[in-house]
Structures are given as C-alpha cells and as structure tokens.
Write a structure and sequence with these properties.
alpha+beta; six-stranded antiparallel sheet; 10 helices; five-stranded parallel sheet
C-alpha cells in the first residue's frame, strides 16, 4: 500500500507520517494487516509534479493539509477548500479512486460558539466537496470532524490552546485564561492515529451530529457532540476527554512542579492525566530536561529521594560508603524493599522484642529484592573496603517528618534501662 499524507510537515501530519513509518519498517507490529510500501509526503515545499505522481500511485490518502490561523479570513477558503478541490481534480485526472480521510473540525457544525467561525465555514465547504466527490466517483471518503487536537510536536500559539499552555508553562512563561470554567473536548493525536489505522483497515468509527436540541434515545444533543452509529455520515475517534481550562492548567502546573515536589502524576492507564503528562513533557526545553535532586550527605554516604506518588509510596537511592552501616531502625506500619544494584553488602533484620535475626548477603551482580518487615529493626552494611554500594529503596508511603514512624534500635542488641 502506498500512502499519501498532505500537510505532512504540520502537527497532525508529522505525527501520522512518523507513526506510519514505524508500521512500514516493522517497528510497530500491532497492525499486522497493514502493509505499507511507500509514504508520500506533501507539504508546501512539494512541487506540483510530485503531487501528480503521488496522486497517480497512492492507494490511501490522508488529507490533513489546511489553514488554521491565516492573516486574513479569506485565506481560510483558499487554503481549506481551494487545495482540496485541486487534490480531487488530480485524483480524477488519474482515475484514482483510493479511499480518502479528510480532517475537518467540529467548528464545521457552525453551532454554539462556532456559529460565526470562518474556519468552520471553510471546513464545512470542504466536507461538502468531499461528499460530492464520493457520490460522483464512488470512492470511499471518511470525513473526520475533530475536536481540540493535542499532542507532541505542535506549534505554540498556533495549533491549540493546550499546546500553547504546555509550551509556555514549561518555560515559566505566563499564560492567559479568560474563563477557567470553559470546557474543552480533547483528542490526543496518538489516539487519532490509532483510529486512522482503523480506517486504513476499512473499519472506521462512524458517527452523526444531531442538531442542537435534538433528542435521540433520551439524549438531548448540543449540535457539536457526535452520536456514534454504524451508518453515520461522519467519522471520528471515540476516545476523547472533557476538561475545563482550569482543570487542564492545574494539571500542567502540577507537572511543572515535579522537579521540586518529586510527585509523579497519577498514571492510570487511559486517563487524561497520564496522556496530558506525556504531552507536557514533550514540550520541555533542554534546560528543563535535567534537574538537581537534593542529596542528604554525611560520612556514611548519601540518601536521595527520587520520586513520590499519591498512593504508591516513594523511591529513593541510598549510597553507602565502604565499611559503613546504615539504618538501625524499625517501623510500625511502614514497609520497604531494598534492592542493591551496585556493590556488595549485608542486610540484617531482627524482630523487635526477640533475638530472632535474619540476614541476607546481597550484590549488584545478582539483583534481589529484600523486604524490610514492619516490627523488625534493620540495617545494611557495605562489605567492600574500596567501593560504594548503591541501593534502590521503595517505601510504601511518603516520608512524613511530623510522623516519621521510624524508631532507632540496633539490630545487634545492647543493654537498655527502658
């Protein structure tokens, strides 16, 4: 299959091309039914002769080219309708009836806040042209009305407000939110690419757009919300997320503070927070990719908290200098796992109130996890005379200085008056 992507240098086009290339080269093996021989990339630098050749040989077409933010409103029609007309004329010239995916917008509904959208009018005109082409030629046409599209490789102050927020917050630049209660429908570009693969396999998700106030199956529609139905005129990606501007910016600022708080977001599979976090990270500038971590250092070595989570505890790194022992404490309810990743050491644990001691010789040459049991005092000794020992430590809860649940007591007992 030869695939033509128009607008290949743009936000959506670039994401689509790079991911199609992974399928083409066998790096992505999740779509065994897709066999891509060539990817034709059309952008503003492509010549008309090249476009002629691409249209002659393409077996599937993604028409993603368009104008988002022109200097003059008149450019909307020229860019979003004019080029579409040229593309279809070339395809008809070569009698190529390859299936076409065209990316439109929910603004084409011209409903609600989109009622005066010149961009929406140009997209609606492009939709009508595509449907007429399908009727005239019999070619399969998949018109995708997209909501707010977000993801990596976008342009700030151009593709979407969320992309602009990610870019600016990552650089400590101010953002402007006129109304934090405004709700957006978000579609992540990676989810859209997966839906596009469905279309290539001949199984796109179909939908329709009931008019504002129309009630179907007991649901009143607002004119911009899709109704998923197998015989729908339009297509769409059913995986979208609703969030207010306030909710979105709150999450982004939380991501921004991670280097200070060490808190990792709640990464529930498929959640808005997980996907938005990945998008935010993609806009980090080079000087924000790396950051210092506070190290507690003494003659025994160092201890550094690495990351914290809301409900899965925290990770830390402990470095023990040669010959030193660290720990010598116990917990009531806190549990830990010690994993020596470099060096050679000895871990001892003693059940409080007894002489029962267990010990484990550990080494980075054989990665093992050792449980630190609640109610057992424990220590870890570096057995090397020359090399430091590095231990990864997981604790089941965030360290709370006001209630540390940590009580000093040597594993090797000494006489006590209490």
């Amino acid at each position: 299959m030869n695939v033509l992507v128009t607008g290949s240098a743009g936000f959506l086009g670039r994401n689509l091309v790079e991911n199609l290339r992974c399928i083409c080269k066998g790096k992505n093996m999740t779509r065994p039914n897709l066999h891509i021989d060539a990817i034709y990339e059309y952008d503003r630098d492509t010549t008309i002769d090249q476009l002629e050749e691409y249209c002659k040989n393409a077996d599937f077409i993604f028409h993603c080219a368009g104008v988002n933010r022109p200097k003059e409103d008149s450019e909307f029609m020229e860019g979003n309708l004019g080029f579409t007309l040229d593309l279809l004329d070339i395809l008809k010239k070569h009698n190529n009836l390859a299936p076409i995916v065209i990316t439109s917008s929910v603004q084409a509904t011209l409903t609600g806040r989109f009622c005066n959208s010149e961009y929406g009018r140009s997209k609606l005109a492009g939709e009508k042209l595509m449907f007429s082409y399908a009727t005239e030629t019999g070619a399969s046409v998949y018109v995708y009305r997209l909501p707010n599209l977000v993801g990596k490789w976008g342009r700030a102050s151009y593709n979407s407000a969320v992309i602009t927020f990610c870019h600016h917050i990552a650089r400590n630049m101010p953002i402007r939110v006129s109304d934090s209660s405004v709700e957006l429908d978000l579609l992540f570009v990676d989810d859209l690419c997966e839906e596009f693969y469905n279309a290539m396999e001949g199984k796109p998700c179909h939908c329709e757009f009931p008019g504002k106030g129309e009630i179907l199956d007991g649901v009143e529609y607002d004119g911009v919300t899709p109704r998923w139905t197998e015989d729908g005129l339009y297509c769409g990606c059913p995986i979208t997320y609703k969030a207010t501007l306030g909710e979105i910016t709150t999450l982004l600022y939380k991501f921004h503070e991670q280097s200070n708080t060490l808190f990792i977001p709640t990464l529930t599979p498929g959640s808005l927070e997980k996907k938005l976090y990945a998008v935010y990270l993609s806009y980090l500038p080079a000087d924000k990719i790396i950051y210092d971590m506070p190290m507690a250092i003494d003659n025994r070595g160092s201890f550094t908290e690495i990351l914290k989570t809301v409900n899965a505890g925290q990770l830390s790194i402990n470095i023990s200098n040669p010959g030193y022992t660290k720990g010598e404490h116990w917990h009531n309810h806190k549990s830990e796992i010690f994993i020596v990743v470099s060096g050679h050491g000895l871990i001892k644990e003693r059940k409080i109130g007894t002489d029962e001691v267990v010990e484990f010789e550990v080494s980075g040459e054989k990665i093992q996890a050792v449980q630190m049991l609640p109610g057992w005092t424990h220590n870890i000794m570096n057995l090397s005379d020359t090399e430091p020992m590095v231990t990864l430590i997981w604790a089941n809860e965030i360290f709370d200085r006001s209630r540390p649940d940590t009580y000093g007591e040597n594993v090797v007992q000494t006489n006590s008056t209490c």
